[in-house]
Amino acid sequence: MLAFAGAGLWLLLAGPADVLGIDSGNAGMVLLMTATWTALYQVGRLPPEDVVRVGSPAEWKAWIGTAFMAAAIAYFLTRGEVLAGVTVFNDPHAQRIGRNLVLLLVAWSVLSSVMASRWKGVVEQDERDREIAAQASGWGRGALVAVVIGLAVLLGLSPASRLAWASHLMIANLLIFALMWSCFVEYAATAAYYWRERRWQ
Predict the structure, then answer these.
(1) How far apart are CA 180 and CA 182, in angstroms?
(2) Which of 24, 41, 87, 160 has the fewest CB atoms within 10 Å, counting from its CB?
(3) Element holding 5 (H helix, E strand)
(4) pLDDT tens digits, residue range 105-163?
(5) Is the C-alpha dihedral spanning 107, 113, 117, 120 positive or negative?
(6) Which of 63, 66, 74, 3 is nearest to 35 (CA)?
(7) 104 phi, psi to nearest 5 deg
(8) 105 touches 72 (CB < 8 A)
(9) Contact present, 17 and 9 (Cβ < 8 Å)
(10) Taking the C-alpha atoms of 33, 35, 26 and 16 in order, what is their torsion angle to the nearest 10 degrees?
(11) What distance in Å separates the CA atoms of residue 96 and residue 162, rounded to the nearest whole number?
Protein backbone atom coordinates (compact mmCIF):
# COMPACT_ATOMS: atom_id res chain seq x y z
CA MET A 1 0.00 0.00 0.00
CA LEU A 2 2.90 2.35 0.69
CA ALA A 3 4.23 1.63 -2.80
CA PHE A 4 0.83 2.44 -4.33
CA ALA A 5 0.55 5.62 -2.28
CA GLY A 6 4.10 6.65 -3.20
CA ALA A 7 3.47 6.09 -6.90
CA GLY A 8 0.21 8.02 -6.65
CA LEU A 9 1.90 10.97 -4.96
CA TRP A 10 4.68 10.99 -7.56
CA LEU A 11 2.18 11.07 -10.42
CA LEU A 12 0.18 13.76 -8.66
CA LEU A 13 3.12 16.00 -7.74
CA ALA A 14 5.99 15.41 -10.15
CA GLY A 15 4.90 13.01 -12.86
CA PRO A 16 4.50 13.80 -16.56
CA ALA A 17 1.36 15.55 -17.76
CA ASP A 18 0.02 12.35 -19.35
CA VAL A 19 0.65 8.63 -18.90
CA LEU A 20 -0.54 6.53 -21.87
CA GLY A 21 -2.96 9.30 -22.77
CA ILE A 22 -4.36 9.53 -19.21
CA ASP A 23 -4.02 12.64 -17.07
CA SER A 24 -1.24 11.75 -14.61
CA GLY A 25 -2.99 13.75 -11.87
CA ASN A 26 -6.11 11.61 -12.22
CA ALA A 27 -4.03 8.41 -12.31
CA GLY A 28 -2.14 9.50 -9.20
CA MET A 29 -5.42 10.30 -7.47
CA VAL A 30 -6.79 6.82 -8.24
CA LEU A 31 -3.66 5.12 -6.87
CA LEU A 32 -3.63 7.30 -3.75
CA MET A 33 -7.32 6.70 -3.07
CA THR A 34 -6.94 2.95 -3.68
CA ALA A 35 -4.13 2.75 -1.13
CA THR A 36 -6.09 4.83 1.40
CA TRP A 37 -9.32 2.89 1.07
CA THR A 38 -7.51 -0.45 1.25
CA ALA A 39 -5.76 0.63 4.44
CA LEU A 40 -9.07 1.85 5.85
CA TYR A 41 -10.69 -1.48 4.98
CA GLN A 42 -7.94 -3.36 6.80
CA VAL A 43 -8.37 -1.13 9.85
CA GLY A 44 -12.14 -1.62 9.65
CA ARG A 45 -11.71 -5.38 10.03
CA LEU A 46 -10.05 -4.90 13.43
CA PRO A 47 -12.15 -4.96 16.60
CA PRO A 48 -13.00 -1.40 17.75
CA GLU A 49 -11.15 -2.00 21.02
CA ASP A 50 -7.90 -2.67 19.15
CA VAL A 51 -8.29 0.45 17.02
CA VAL A 52 -8.95 2.66 20.04
CA ARG A 53 -5.97 1.14 21.82
CA VAL A 54 -3.71 2.41 19.03
CA GLY A 55 -5.17 5.90 19.08
CA SER A 56 -8.35 7.83 19.84
CA PRO A 57 -10.73 8.79 16.99
CA ALA A 58 -9.46 12.37 17.12
CA GLU A 59 -5.86 11.19 16.83
CA TRP A 60 -6.61 8.95 13.84
CA LYS A 61 -8.38 11.82 12.14
CA ALA A 62 -5.50 14.18 12.89
CA TRP A 63 -2.83 11.92 11.38
CA ILE A 64 -4.82 11.12 8.25
CA GLY A 65 -5.89 14.76 7.88
CA THR A 66 -2.27 15.87 8.14
CA ALA A 67 -1.29 13.50 5.33
CA PHE A 68 -4.15 14.59 3.07
CA MET A 69 -3.61 18.30 3.61
CA ALA A 70 0.16 17.90 3.11
CA ALA A 71 -0.54 16.23 -0.25
CA ALA A 72 -2.96 19.00 -1.24
CA ILE A 73 -0.50 21.75 -0.27
CA ALA A 74 2.41 20.03 -2.04
CA TYR A 75 0.28 19.66 -5.17
CA PHE A 76 -0.69 23.33 -5.04
CA LEU A 77 2.91 24.48 -4.58
CA THR A 78 4.25 22.30 -7.39
CA ARG A 79 1.65 23.85 -9.72
CA GLY A 80 2.19 27.43 -8.52
CA GLU A 81 4.09 28.47 -11.64
CA VAL A 82 1.23 27.30 -13.84
CA LEU A 83 -1.37 29.11 -11.71
CA ALA A 84 0.67 32.33 -11.80
CA GLY A 85 0.41 32.40 -15.57
CA VAL A 86 -3.35 31.86 -15.69
CA THR A 87 -5.44 34.93 -16.54
CA VAL A 88 -8.78 33.41 -17.58
CA PHE A 89 -11.10 31.22 -15.56
CA ASN A 90 -11.62 28.59 -18.27
CA ASP A 91 -7.90 27.92 -18.77
CA PRO A 92 -7.57 24.11 -19.23
CA HIS A 93 -4.43 23.89 -17.06
CA ALA A 94 -6.10 25.77 -14.20
CA GLN A 95 -9.20 23.62 -14.51
CA ARG A 96 -7.11 20.44 -14.33
CA ILE A 97 -5.32 21.65 -11.20
CA GLY A 98 -8.56 22.80 -9.59
CA ARG A 99 -10.28 19.51 -10.42
CA ASN A 100 -7.50 17.44 -8.85
CA LEU A 101 -7.47 19.61 -5.72
CA VAL A 102 -11.24 19.37 -5.36
CA LEU A 103 -11.11 15.59 -5.84
CA LEU A 104 -8.43 15.28 -3.17
CA LEU A 105 -10.41 17.36 -0.67
CA VAL A 106 -13.69 15.60 -1.49
CA ALA A 107 -11.97 12.25 -0.96
CA TRP A 108 -10.81 13.46 2.46
CA SER A 109 -14.36 14.57 3.33
CA VAL A 110 -15.78 11.17 2.34
CA LEU A 111 -13.04 9.39 4.24
CA SER A 112 -13.82 11.49 7.32
CA SER A 113 -17.47 10.47 7.11
CA VAL A 114 -16.54 6.80 6.80
CA MET A 115 -14.19 7.10 9.76
CA ALA A 116 -16.94 8.77 11.82
CA SER A 117 -19.29 5.86 11.10
CA ARG A 118 -16.54 3.51 12.25
CA TRP A 119 -16.59 5.09 15.73
CA LYS A 120 -20.32 4.63 16.37
CA GLY A 121 -20.84 3.43 19.90
CA VAL A 122 -17.34 4.54 20.95
CA VAL A 123 -16.59 7.62 23.04
CA GLU A 124 -15.02 9.89 20.42
CA GLN A 125 -13.93 12.76 22.65
CA ASP A 126 -13.07 13.22 26.29
CA GLU A 127 -11.65 16.12 28.29
CA ARG A 128 -8.13 15.49 27.01
CA ASP A 129 -9.29 15.47 23.40
CA ARG A 130 -11.19 18.74 23.85
CA GLU A 131 -8.14 20.41 25.39
CA ILE A 132 -5.91 19.26 22.55
CA ALA A 133 -8.49 20.38 19.97
CA ALA A 134 -8.64 23.86 21.53
CA GLN A 135 -4.85 24.23 21.52
CA ALA A 136 -4.52 22.96 17.95
CA SER A 137 -7.32 25.25 16.80
CA GLY A 138 -5.30 28.19 18.08
CA TRP A 139 -2.33 27.08 15.96
CA GLY A 140 -4.61 26.81 12.92
CA ARG A 141 -6.02 30.31 13.41
CA GLY A 142 -2.54 31.70 13.88
CA ALA A 143 -1.37 30.08 10.64
CA LEU A 144 -4.34 31.53 8.74
CA VAL A 145 -3.78 35.02 10.14
CA ALA A 146 -0.05 34.84 9.31
CA VAL A 147 -0.66 33.93 5.66
CA VAL A 148 -3.38 36.56 5.17
CA ILE A 149 -1.27 39.31 6.77
CA GLY A 150 1.76 38.22 4.74
CA LEU A 151 -0.28 38.34 1.54
CA ALA A 152 -1.70 41.77 2.43
CA VAL A 153 1.77 43.15 3.13
CA LEU A 154 3.18 41.64 -0.06
CA LEU A 155 0.43 43.10 -2.24
CA GLY A 156 0.34 46.44 -0.43
CA LEU A 157 4.06 47.21 -0.34
CA SER A 158 5.27 45.72 -3.63
CA PRO A 159 5.56 48.07 -6.63
CA ALA A 160 3.07 47.43 -9.42
CA SER A 161 5.86 46.38 -11.76
CA ARG A 162 6.53 43.33 -9.60
CA LEU A 163 2.91 42.22 -9.29
CA ALA A 164 2.37 40.95 -12.82
CA TRP A 165 1.78 37.48 -11.34
CA ALA A 166 -0.95 38.71 -8.98
CA SER A 167 -4.00 38.21 -11.17
CA HIS A 168 -7.40 38.00 -9.47
CA LEU A 169 -7.36 34.23 -10.06
CA MET A 170 -3.92 33.88 -8.46
CA ILE A 171 -5.01 35.89 -5.42
CA ALA A 172 -8.11 33.68 -5.11
CA ASN A 173 -5.88 30.58 -5.26
CA LEU A 174 -3.59 32.05 -2.59
CA LEU A 175 -6.58 32.59 -0.30
CA ILE A 176 -7.57 28.95 -0.84
CA PHE A 177 -3.98 28.01 -0.02
CA ALA A 178 -4.27 29.99 3.22
CA LEU A 179 -7.28 27.88 4.23
CA MET A 180 -5.48 24.64 3.34
CA TRP A 181 -2.41 25.77 5.29
CA SER A 182 -4.57 26.57 8.33
CA CYS A 183 -6.17 23.11 8.23
CA PHE A 184 -2.78 21.44 7.80
CA VAL A 185 -1.27 23.27 10.78
CA GLU A 186 -4.28 22.43 12.95
CA TYR A 187 -4.17 18.73 12.04
CA ALA A 188 -0.39 18.60 12.44
CA ALA A 189 -0.55 20.34 15.82
CA THR A 190 -3.24 17.92 16.98
CA ALA A 191 -1.14 14.92 15.92
CA ALA A 192 1.95 16.42 17.55
CA TYR A 193 0.15 16.95 20.87
CA TYR A 194 -1.02 13.31 20.90
CA TRP A 195 2.45 12.07 19.96
CA ARG A 196 4.08 14.13 22.71
CA GLU A 197 1.57 12.94 25.26
CA ARG A 198 2.14 9.29 24.36
CA ARG A 199 5.91 9.78 24.41
CA TRP A 200 5.84 11.06 27.99
CA GLN A 201 3.46 8.41 29.27
Answers:
(1) 5
(2) 160
(3) helix 2-13
(4) 777 777 777 666 666 655 556 688 889 889 999 999 999 999 999 999 988 888 888 87
(5) positive
(6) 3
(7) -65, -45
(8) yes
(9) no
(10) 150
(11) 27
